[in-house]
TrEMBL record:
It comes from the Eukaryota. GO terms for molecular function: ATP binding; ATP-dependent activity, acting on DNA; hydrolase activity. It holds the Pfam family Helicase_C. It comes from Brassica cretica. This is Helicase C-terminal domain-containing protein. The keyword Cell wall biogenesis/degradation does not apply. Residues 1-117 form the Helicase C-terminal domain. SUPFAM superfamilies: P-loop containing nucleoside triphosphate hydrolases. Keywords: ATP-binding, Hydrolase, Nucleotide-binding. The keyword Nucleotide-binding applies. One of its GO terms (biological process) is DNA repair. GO terms for cellular component: nucleus. CDD domains: SF2_C_SNF (cd18793). Signal peptide: none annotated.
Length: 128
């Protein structure tokens, strides 16, 4: 979708009461959009870095939002999605650490070999 078409779709979603659903990928929805008409955010394509999801959710939490916003993450047990959620938790701990609440030994900006091994094989491994 072109930027012009995307902007038109967002404007219709925010201003036309007959438009009740907006579907977009996580990466398309995490930057530069104002979705204050949204009251539900459903994440289907989990991302290993939780800040990417947080930014997409924040499109609905903007100045002008008049409703409570409900966020739902859809994940299937015993799949890579479970492991992505576990990695997200690790990354959140890293952020807390960087803010002085932990040891600061982990990296939030890159997937390590151990992270990739965990995603693909489901086990934390010291060396792959």
């Amino acid at each position: 979708m072109s930027l012009v078409a995307r902007d038109k779709a967002v404007k219709e979603f925010n201003n036309d009461p007959s438009v009740q659903v907006m579907l977009m990928s996580l990466k398309a929805g995490n930057l530069g959009l104002n979705m204050v008409s949204a009251s539900h955010v459903i994440i289907l394509d989990l991302w290993w870095n939780p800040t990417t999801e947080d930014q997409a959710i924040d499109r609905a939490h903007r100045i002008g939002q008049t409703q409570a916003v409900t966020v739902t993450r859809i994940a299937i047990n015993n799949t890579v999605e479970d492991r992505i959620l576990a990695l997200q938790e690790t990354k959140r701990i890293v952020v807390a650490s960087a803010l002085g609440e932990g040891s600061g030994e982990l990296s939030a900006t890159r997937l390590t070999e151990q992270d990739l091994g965990f995603l693909f094989f489901g086990v934390k491994q010291e060396h792959i």
